[in-house]
C-alpha cells in the first residue's frame, strides 16, 4: 500500500514530492477502513477549509483559532521580502551571526531548516548557564538576537533577552538595534518591543499554534536571517498542498493518519522515528513535539520516540507496542515510510497529526497538562530560599546524588546508581516506556544522549531522551496527559558559574533547578516513578552514570 504524489504547484520544482508507504501488510489492511472513513467524512478538504467542527463541540472554540497553518505556503509569502530586506541591512552592518532565543515551536522548526540547509544558527532553548554563556562568548559585534515567543511571556526566552540585552550594553552595542522579535499581535513582548525600540517586530499569524508554526514567522524569520532558502521551503509546501487537501485514499496524509490510528488501536501507542537517508537533519525532534503535544491527552495519544537511526534499539527490534516509521527509504524493520522535501513533510505531518486527533477523539490543538509543571517551577522560585527547598538525597554514590519520588518503587537500602536504575526499570509497566530527561548543557554534556540507546538496549522497552527544559514544551504534555505507563529518569548537574537574570530574583541555575524539581513533582503527583540523579561534578558524574548503566543487565 504505497503512494507518491508529485505536483507542480505554483513556483514549485517539478520533482517536489511527498510520499507515504505502509510497508507492513497487516497494518495496511487495518488502515484501509480508517482511510475510507477519513475520505468519506471529507476530513482533508474540511481541514483545508479550516472547519473547526472536525474534533467535536468541546474542541471547536480552540480549533477555530488554530487552523490557519493549512494555507501558510500562500499567506506567509509577504514575509519573504521583509526578511530579505532586514538580512541585507544587518549584513551591511557586519551582523551575520544569528542567535535564536525560543522554546518548542519557536525553535525546533528553524533549527531543522538551518541544519538541513547547512547554515549556522545558535539556538537557545535552555536554562543551562554554561550553554547560555557559550552563546554569549561569541562575537557580539556580529550578533543579532531573535527573541521568539508566541505568548510573549515564555520565562526561558525572557531570561535570554534580559541577559543578552545587558551583554550588548556592556559591550558598547546599542541593544535595541540588535534585537528582533517574533511574537503574536497584542502579546506583552510586542508591547515591550515597541516601547524599547527593538530593531524589528514580526507579528505572526495568531491563528496558528506553536507546534504547527514551522511556515509562519516563527520558522521563517530566524531561518531566513541565518541564510536558509525559505522561499524554496514555501514552494515545496505549495507543491505538496493540493494532494494533502484531497479527499482521496491516495492522499499521503490520509494514509499516514489511518496507519497511525490503526496502529494505536492495535496497542502500538508509540511511534519510533528514525532518519534513513532523508537528507533532512533533525526532523524527528520537530515531529516529536507535533505528535506528543497534539495527541497526548485524556489518557491516550501517540508517544514519539526519536532514535539515532534504523539500527538503533527501539526501532529495529520494536515490539507490538510501537510502530517504526522511517523518514526516508524503508530500512531496519520500518512499518511506515514518509519521504519528500522539508516543506512538504512539515505539511504532511501536520495534516496527518490533526487527522489522528479526530480518529482518537481528542483536540489536537490544546495542551492542557503543560501549565502544571510551569506552576510548580514558579512556586519553587517563589520559595523563601532562592535555591528552593532543601531536598535530602536517598543516597550518594561518588559524584552522583540519588533522589526518588512517585511512590515506594525504590527500596530504602539502595545505595548505588546501578541499583537505582535497576529499580526504575523494574518499575516500568508492561508496554511502558522510560523517559530520560537531561537538565544539562546539550553541547558540553552531549554524552548524556548516550543514555537513551544504552537504557533501551538493556531494558527492552521504548526509551525517549529529552534535553530539559526544552522537552517541557514538547513531550512534557504527553508525560502527564497521555498513556500513564512511563517511568522517568531526570539528570541534573551542579553549576560552576551561574548567570544572574537581570531584573529577576533568580539565576539561570536556580531556574533550571526549579524546572526539574517542578516537573518531577507533577509527575510524582500523577503516580509516576521519578529517579533524579544529580551530578555534583558533571564530567565525573556523567562518566560514573554511563558506567552504571552498562552494569545494568537486560
TrEMBL record:
**EC number from the UniProt entry:** 5.3.1.9
Q: Which UniProt keywords apply?
A: Gluconeogenesis, Glycolysis, Isomerase
Q: Which GO terms describe its molecular function?
A: isomerase activity
Q: Is Ribonucleoprotein set as a keyword in this record?
A: no
Q: In which pathway does it act?
A: Carbohydrate degradation; glycolysis; D-glyceraldehyde 3-phosphate and glycerone phosphate from D-glucose: step 2/4
InterPro entries to which the protein is assigned, alphabetical: G6P_Isomerase, SIS_dom_sf
Pfam families with a match to the protein in the record: PGI
Q: List the catalytic activities from the record.
A: alpha-D-glucose 6-phosphate = beta-D-fructose 6-phosphate
Q: Which family does it belong to?
A: Belongs to the GPI family.
Q: Which PANTHER family match?
A: GLUCOSE-6-PHOSPHATE ISOMERASE
The protein here is known as Glucose-6-phosphate isomerase
Recorded source organism is Streptoalloteichus tenebrarius (strain ATCC 17920 / DSM 40477 / JCM 4838 / CBS 697.72 / NBRC 16177 / NCIMB 11028 / NRRL B-12390 / A12253. 1 / ISP 5477)
Amino acid at each position: 500500500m504505497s503512494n507518491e504524489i508529485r505536483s507542480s504547484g505554483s513556483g514549485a520544482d517539478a520533482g517536489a514530492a511527498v510520499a507515504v508507504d505502509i510497508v507492513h501488510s497487516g497494518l495496511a489492511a487495518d488502515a484501509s477502513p480508517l482511510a475510507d472513513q477519513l475520505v468519506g467524512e471529507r476530513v482533508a478538504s474540511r481541514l483545508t477549509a479550516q472547519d473547526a467542527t472536525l474534533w467535536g463541540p468541546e474542541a471547536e472554540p480552540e480549533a477555530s483559532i488554530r487552523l490557519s497553518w493549512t494555507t501558510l505556503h500562500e499567506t506567509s509569502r509577504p514575509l519573504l521580502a521583509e526578511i530579505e530586506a532586514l538580512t541585507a541591512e544587518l549584513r551591511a552592518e557586519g551582523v551575520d551571526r544569528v542567535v535564536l532565543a525560543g522554546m518548542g515551536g519557536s525553535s525546533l522548526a528553524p533549527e531543522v531548516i538551518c541544519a538541513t540547509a547547512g547554515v549556522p544558527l545558535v539556538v537557545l532553548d535552555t536554562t543551562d548557564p554554561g550553554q547560555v554563556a557559550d552563546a554569549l562568548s561569541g562575537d557580539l559585534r556580529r550578533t543579532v538576537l531573535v527573541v521568539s515567543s508566541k505568548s510573549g511571556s515564555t520565562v526561558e526566552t525572557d531570561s535570554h533577552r534580559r541577559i543578552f540585552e545587558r551583554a550588548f550594553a556592556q559591550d558598547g552595542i546599542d541593544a535595541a538595534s540588535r534585537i528582533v522579535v517574533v511574537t503574536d499581535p497584542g502579546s506583552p513582548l510586542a508591547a515591550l518591543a515597541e516601547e524599547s525600540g527593538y530593531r524589528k517586530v514580526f507579528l505572526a499569524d495568531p491563528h496558528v499554534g506553536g507546534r504547527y508554526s514551522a511556515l509562519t514567522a516563527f520558522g521563517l524569520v530566524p531561518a531566513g536571517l541565518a541564510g536558509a532558502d525559505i522561499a524554496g521551503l514555501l514552494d515545496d509546501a505549495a507543491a505538496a498542498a493540493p494532494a494533502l487537501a484531497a479527499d482521496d485514499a491516495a492522499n499521503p496524509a490520509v494514509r499516514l493518519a489511518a496507519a497511525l490510528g490503526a496502529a494505536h488501536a492495535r496497542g502500538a501507542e508509540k511511534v519510533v522515528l528514525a532518519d534513513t537517508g532523508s537528507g533532512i537533519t533533525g526532523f524527528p525532534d520537530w515531529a516529536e513535539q507535533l505528535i506528543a503535544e497534539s495527541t497526548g491527552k485524556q489518557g491516550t495519544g501517540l508517544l514519539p520516540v526519536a532514535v539515532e537511526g534504523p539500527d538503533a534499539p527501539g526501532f529495529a527490534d520494536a515490539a507490538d507496542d510501537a510502530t517504526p516509521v522511517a523518514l526516508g527509504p524503508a530500512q531496519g524493520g520500518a512499518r511506515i515510510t514518509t519521504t519528500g522535501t522539508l516543506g512538504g513533510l512539515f505539511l504532511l505531518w501536520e495534516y496527518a497529526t490533526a487527522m489522528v486527533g479526530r480518529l482518537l477523539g481528542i483536540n489536537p490543538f490544546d495542551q492542557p497538562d503543560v501549565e502544571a509543571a510551569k506552576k510548580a517551577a514558579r512556586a519553587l522560585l517563589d520559595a523563601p530560599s532562592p535555591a528552593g527547598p532543601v531536598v535530602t538525597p536517598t543516597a550518594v554514590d561518588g559524584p552522583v546524588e540519588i533522589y526518588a519520588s512517585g511512590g515506594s518503587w525504590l527500596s530504602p537500602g539502595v545505595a548505588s546508581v546501578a541499583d537505582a536504575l535497576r529499580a526504575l526499570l523494574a518499575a516500568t509497566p508492561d508496554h511502558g516506556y522510560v523517559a530520560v530527561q537531561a537538565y544539562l548543557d546539550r553541547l558540553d554534556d552531549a554524552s548524556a544522549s548516550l543514555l537513551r540507546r544504552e537504557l533501551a538496549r538493556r531494558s527492552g522497552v521504548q526509551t525517549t531522551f529529552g534535553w530539559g527544559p526544552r522537552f517541557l514544551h514538547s513531550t512534557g504534555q504527553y508525560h502527564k496527559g497521555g498513556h500513564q505507563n512511563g517511568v522517568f529518569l531526570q539528570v541534573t548537574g551542579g553549576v560552576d558559574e551561574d548567570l544572574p537574570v537581570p531584573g529577576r530574583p533568580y539565576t539561570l541555575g536556580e531556574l533550571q533547578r526549579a524546572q526539574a524539581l517542578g516537573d518531577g513533582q507533577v509527575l510524582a503527583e500523577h503516580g509516576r516513578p521519578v529517579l533524579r540523579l544529580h551530578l555534583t561534578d558533571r564530567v565525573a558524574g556523567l562518566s560514573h552514570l554511563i558506567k552504571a548503566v552498562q552494569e545494568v543487565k537486560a
